[in-house]
Recover the amino acids of this structure.
């Protein structure tokens, strides 16, 4: 209240409201009844130990899920991928006019790549 | 060692629970009266509603207690929860408000002037939510503007505006109870 000084009229009004609008003080019995009711409610709350166990269990489940999700693909998937990669490499090599060991040569003319790349894109991206 | 580890863990957990319960008990003892008083004022002077609101707020505080090491932050958070619970209660019981308040006030003869309390409760009911909560916190419960700003998550400017409008409204609502000439007399 001290941070917001009031003019005398408002101060008197607030004073009257404060005096007339006050909760009746609790008896010791009422306080005890209030505390007992609160204790009964608190007893129904799951203990933090259980919450921690639950959180750990959830974290473990997430880790297992991540592990499964990031595990290596099955052999048949790997084989299909390798086959597709081989086909793509061969198509790429034929467009560049390369054969056999040329594929691994270091003196491949890279200036050919942009045009060939366009052709490759049209080859693989066109439905 | 295989047998000792689980027992040590169990012992540590039990001690943690005891300290949590002790901390909660201390928190309840320190804030019970103030919490019920604030809830009472925000729910329109209903004793049972005030207790219900305070119970729910304390229960939430118990659940949140391990997250708060700083007691002052916990207190701010608790007051915010209490105010929200009181608001929820008001919203649910709006149509019963007048009847309930009137009947409760008339059945508590120990209260100072129940008629006057009822009029003040009615006048507060005409304020907007922000105005009512701000007025009760600052002028009736003694929170500073900075504290109220933190609790209600509003700027100090907004708090001051709410206070100004609340006072203007209450002046006009309670004009007949506290006449102008009496209030202006030094």
């Amino acid at each position: 209240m001290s941070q917001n000084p009031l003019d005398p009229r408002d101060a008197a009004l607030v004073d009257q409201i404060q005096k007339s609008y006050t909760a009746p003080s609790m008896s010791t019995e009422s306080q005890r009844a209030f505390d007992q009711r609160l204790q009964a409610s608190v007893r129904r709350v799951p203990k933090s130990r259980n919450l921690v166990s639950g959180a750990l269990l959830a974290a473990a489940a997430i880790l297992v899920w991540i592990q499964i999700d990031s595990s290596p693909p099955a052999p048949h998937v790997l084989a299909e991928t390798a086959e597709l990669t081989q086909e793509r490499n061969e198509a790429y090599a034929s467009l560049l006019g390369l054969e056999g060991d040329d594929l691994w040569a270091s003196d491949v003319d890279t200036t050919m790549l942009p045009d060939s790349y366009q052709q490759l894109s049209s080859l693989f991206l066109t439905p | 060692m295989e047998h000792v580890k689980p027992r040590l863990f169990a012992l540590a957990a039990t001690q943690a629970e005891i300290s949590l319960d002790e901390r909660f008990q201390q928190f309840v003892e320190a804030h019970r009266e103030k919490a019920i008083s604030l809830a009472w004022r925000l729910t329109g002077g209903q004793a049972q509603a005030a207790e219900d609101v305070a119970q729910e707020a304390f229960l939430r505080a118990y659940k949140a207690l391990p997250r708060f090491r700083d007691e002052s932050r916990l207190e701010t958070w608790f007051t915010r929860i209490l105010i929200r619970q009181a608001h929820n209660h008001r919203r649910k019981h709006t149509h019963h408000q007048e009847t309930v308040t009137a009947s409760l006030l008339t059945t508590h003869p120990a209260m100072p002037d129940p008629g006057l309390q009822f009029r003040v409760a009615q006048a507060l009911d005409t304020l907007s939510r922000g105005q009512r909560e701000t007025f009760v916190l600052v002028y009736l419960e003694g929170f500073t503007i900075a504290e109220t700003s933190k609790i209600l998550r509003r700027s100090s400017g907004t708090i001051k505006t709410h206070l100004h409008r609340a006072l203007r409204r209450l002046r006009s609502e309670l004009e007949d109870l506290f006449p102008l000439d009496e209030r202006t007399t030094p």
